Amino acid sequence: MANKGVALLVVMCLILVAAVKATEVYNPCYSYCSPACITAKKSNSLCEKYCDDECAAVENLSKLGVKFDFEKHSVTGVAGVPVDTSDGVLQGFTLLNA
Prior knowledge:
Layout: H1 2-39, H2 44-63, E1 67-69, E2 74-76, E3 89-90, E4 93-95
Parallel strand pairs: 2-4
Antiparallel strand pairs: 1-2, 3-4
Helix pairs in contact: 1-2
Keywords: Signal
Signal peptide: 1-22
């Protein structure tokens, strides 16, 4: 019974660490995306869906080692990721060192 308790504790810790890591990328992305979308005169619910989709994609790419700079609006580290870099942008970010 004690082993089950320890296993549950370990699983809960892993989930917590994964959730905290995920918000490191998602929150800055959403904070950047939402005001820009609202400024473009789109509805609040449309912006929420749009930003949620975009930031989920950014979050997934960051798990593959891609680094996003929200202030400079650029991205680095896509050389090892199978994405189309032909147009020089990825999710609206300018590619650097692709």
